[in-house]
Design goal:
Blueprint lengths: L9 E7 L6 H6 L7 E6 L6 H7 L3 E4 L5 H10 L6 E6 L2 E3 L1 H13 L4 E12 L2 E2 L8 E7 L4 E3 L11 E3 L3 E11 L5 H17 L7 H18 L6 H29 L2
Parallel strand pairs: 1-2, 1-4, 2-3, 6-11
Antiparallel strand pairs: 4-8, 5-11, 6-7, 6-8, 9-10
Helix pairs in contact: 5-7, 6-7
Length: 261
């Protein structure tokens, strides 16, 4: 799978469905450091499966039952390997992060059960250097050590994350996150994600939430995170956090009103 394939016995576990837009970048970013690439697909029909196979990845079908179940299943496919790197199909490793992972695998420090990497958004043709930063995600774990948790049954409420028992360090470099092709896709996803988050929320939806939470979310990204330094991209991204937060609390409020009938 590449000139560094045997240095650290690394398997890469990728979850995907219909993501021809970014899957090739994802796969090519790990080919030189992975001894094995496993793609867990939940029913792609756009050519993603064939593209993955053409680039040397194993493809395993697994029906979607929430992100927690899907990512845990992907990790389990690779548990016999010394190290497992978990990625989404819209994430790819920048060169500095590739080098950091290679060095970490070579050193194989027994004190560490996992490693965090910083995920950085690429949006509208450029980086969001400040907005959403830093975003540390535990994605490199020892085989069999990672467990996935989230909000709601099978993590259907979102915010899935990998956990390990023991120490976890931080890798150098960035994981590129090509979350949204454009603002239209971001808006579409905001509706579905907000509805899902609201379904499993145990608070929110009050008048104060509707009035204060959306502007607070925007101010956090634009001012506190210094998203204004990202220029128009930062302003658009901060505006979309306002939109998402408003949608989430609106869904919560509407659900409560419907239950009173």
């Amino acid at each position: 799978m590449g000139q560094h394939a045997n240095r650290g016995d690394l398997a890469v576990a990728i979850t995907t469905k219909d993501n021809m837009r970014t899957i090739e970048r994802t796969l090519r970013s790990v080919q030189l450091i992975a001894s094995r690439i496993v793609v867990v697909d939940s029913g792609s029909t756009d050519g993603t499966i064939e593209r993955c196979q053409a680039l040397g990845a194993e493809v395993v079908h697994h029906d979607w039952d929430g992100m927690v179940v899907q990512r845990q299943f992907a990790l389990e496919q690779c548990r016999e390997h010394r190290w497992v790197l978990a990625l989404d199909s819209d994430e790819s490793l920048e060169p500095q992060l590739q080098d950091s992972i290679t060095r970490t695998l070579r050193e194989d420090d027994p004190r560490y059960q996992g490693w965090f990497m910083n995920r950085k958004v690429w949006f509208l043709g450029g980086w969001l250097h400040h907005t959403f930063q830093p975003e540390w995600r535990l994605r490199l774990v020892r085989g069999g050590a990672g467990r996935v948790t989230g909000i709601g049954p099978q993590g259907r409420g979102g915010h899935d994350r990998i956990e390990v028992d023991g120490r976890a360090g931080r890798l150098v470099g960035n994981c590129r996150h090509d979350s949204w092709a454009d603002v239209q896709q971001w808006c579409q996803r905001s509706i579905s994600l907000a509805e899902r988050a609201a379904q499993y929320a145990d608070c929110g939806g009050s008048l104060l939430n509707l009035l204060l939470s959306p502007p607070a979310a925007m101010i956090k990204q634009l001012i506190l995170k210094r998203g204004f330094l990202d220029g128009m991209r930062g302003l658009i991204a901060a505006g979309m956090t306002f939109n998402y937060t408003m949608l989430k609390h609106t869904f919560i409020a509407a659900e409560r009103l419907s239950k009173r009938r």
